[in-house]
Design brief:
Helix content is about 25%, strand content about 40%. It is of the alpha+beta class. The chain has a 16-stranded mixed sheet that branches. It has a four-stranded antiparallel sheet with strand order 17-18-19-20. A hairpin with a 5-residue loop joins strand 13 and strand 14. It is globular, with a radius of gyration of 25 Å.
Length: about 400
C-alpha cells in the first residue's frame, strides 16, 4: 500500500537517498566480485558432490510427496562436468503432480542443457534447452501451446534449481555474505506472441541477477536431531526465493520455498515417503485446533454453515470487521453472522475437502492461559485469535 509522505519525512528521504544508494551499490559491487571468485574456485570435478539424495515434501508433518536427486559425472561424449537429475512426485488431495528434469552443468554449475517434463491436472508441460556455438535454443510446450525461442548467450546461466542446490553446498562463510551471479529468466510457452511463427528471438534483458545470501553455521533441527547447518537463500531470476540448509559433509538437509508453507527434508528413501512424527500437543491446544478446524470445514463445505456459530463470538468478530469496513459499525452480532455466513455459503469452497488433513497438519497453535492463537505455518502474521469461555474455545478474531 502506498503511503502519503509528510513534508518532513519526504525531506528526510531525499537527504538519505544518496548515501543509501551508494552503500547499496558498493555492497553489490563486492557481491559481484564474491560471485566471480566463487565460480573461479569451481572449475574441476568434485566427486563428493555426486550421489543420490531422497527428500520428503511436507505440509506441516503431513507427507505430500517426494524428491529424488541424482548427481553424477557427465557422460564423456558431452561438454558437461556434472549431470543432475531431479525427480519430484506430489499428491495434494486428489490432484497429482510430477516433475522430471535433467541438467548438464559445467564445473561451476552453469547450465549447458536442460530437459524437463512437468505433469499436473491441467496436462503436461515440456522444456528442452540447448547451448551450441554460443547460442541457446529453447523448445517449450504447455497443453496446446508451444513455442521456440532463440538467444545469443549473454554469459553463463546459473538460473536452474540444480545449479542453486549445488552452489549452496559450496558456499562456506563464518559471517553473512551476499553473492551476485547471473542467470536467464526463460519464458514459458504461453509467453510467446500468438501471432508469431517460427523462432522468437530473445534479447539480453532476460539475463538477470541471482542473489545468494549466505549465513554462518547455526543450530538446525533435522528429523528430530539437532545439527549445525548454514542456510543459503537464493533469489532467482524471477524473484522466487528458496532457502537451503547445508549440514555436515556439505549435504543439503532441507530446503523450502520462501512463499509456500512447505518444507523439503532429506532422509532415507523410506523416511522420505512417510509423515513426520507428530508434535506433542496438549489437550488445550488440541481443543483450540478443533475450534479453528470447524471454520475450515465450513469453508470447505464439508459441514453445514451454521456449525460455525458454535465456535465464533460474532460480536467480537463484528468489532474487528468494523475497524476494516464502516458498513459493520452499526450491525449487531446476528447481522454480522448473517452476512459472513451468507458469503461463506455462496462462495466456492476455499479449501478442498480432500485437503483438510493437510491443512490440519500445517496449523500452529499457541496457548497462553485463556487466550490462544492459530496460524498456518509459513504464512503471514495474522492468526485466528481465541478465548476460553465457560470451558470452551471461541474464535474472537479472524486472520484478516
Amino acid at each position: 500500500m502506498r503511503r502519503n509522505l509528510s513534508p518532513v519525512w519526504l525531506l528526510l528521504t531525499l537527504f538519505l537517498a544518496i548515501p543509501f544508494a551508494r552503500a547499496e551499490e558498493e555492497d553489490e559491487a563486492a557481491a559481484r566480485e564474491r560471485g566471480k571468485a566463487l565460480l573461479a574456485s569451481l572449475k574441476t570435478f568434485d566427486e563428493s558432490l555426486t550421489g543420490t539424495t531422497f527428500y520428503g515434501i511436507y505440509a506441516g508433518t503431513k507427507n505430500i510427496g517426494t524428491i529424488k536427486t541424482v548427481v553424477e559425472k557427465a557422460p564423456e561424449d558431452t561438454a558437461g562436468v556434472y549431470q543432475a537429475v531431479f525427480e519430484m512426485k506430489m499428491k495434494i488431495g486428489s490432484n497429482e503432480f510430477s516433475s522430471n528434469s535433467r541438467d548438464m552443468l559445467d564445473g561451476s554449475f552453469a547450465v549447458l542443457s536442460h530437459a524437463s517434463l512437468e505433469e499436473d491436472p491441467n496436462g503436461p508441460a515440456t522444456e528442452k534447452r540447448s547451448l551450441k556455438d554460443g547460442r541457446w535454443t529453447l523448445e517449450t510446450s504447455k497443453g496446446e501451446e508451444s513455442a521456440v525461442f532463440g538467444l545469443a548467450a549473454p554469459g553463463p546461466d546459473h538460473g536452474e534449481k540444480s545449479s542453486h542446490w549445488l552452489l549452496a553446498r559450496r558456499i562456506r562463510t563464518d559471517e553473512k555474505r551476499l553473492y551476485l551471479l547471473k542467470g536467464i529468466a526463460w519464458p514459458k510457452a504461453t509467453d510467446a506472441d500468438p501471432e508469431a511463427s517460427g523462432e522468437t528471438e530473445l534479447d539480453a534483458s532476460v539475463y538477470k541477477d541471482i542473489r545468494i545470501a549466505a549465513a554462518p553455521p547455526a543450530p538446525f533441527e533435522h528429523r528430530g536431531a539437532s545439527v549445525t547447518a548454514r542456510v543459503v537463500t537464493v533469489t532467482d531470476t524471477k524473484g522466487e526465493t528458496t532457502s537451503y540448509a547445508v549440514g555436515p559433509g556439505d549435504k543439503v538437509l532441507a530446503f523450502w520455498p520462501g512463499d509456500a508453507p512447505i518444507k523439503i527434508i532429506a532422509g532415507t528413501e523410506e523416511e522420505a515417503g512417510a509423515d513426520l512424527a507428530e508434535e506433542a500437543i496438549s489437550d488445550e491446544a488440541r481443543a483450540v485446533k478443533d475450534a479453528v478446524l470447524v471454520y475450515f470445514r465450513v469453508a470447505a463445505k464439508a459441514v453445514d454453515v451454521d456449525e460455525i456459530d458454535k465456535v465464533i463470538d460474532w460480536a467480537s468478530v463484528g468489532k474487528q470487521l468494523a475497524e476494516l469496513n464502516p458498513m459493520f459499525k452499526d450491525m449487531d452480532a446476528e447481522q454480522v453472522a448473517g452476512i459472513v455466513k451468507m458469503q461463506l455459503a455462496n462462495s466456492p469452497a476455499s479449501v478442498p475437502k480432500d485437503q483438510l488433513d493437510i491443512l490440519e497438519a500445517m496449523l500452529k497453535v499457541s496457548v497462553d492461559g485463556d487466550k490462544a492463537s492459530v496460524k498456518i505455518k509459513g504464512e503471514g502474521d495474522k492468526p485466528f485469535r481465541l478465548e476460553k469461555r465457560d470451558g470452551k474455545w471461541i474464535i474472537v478474531q479472524l486472520p484478516i
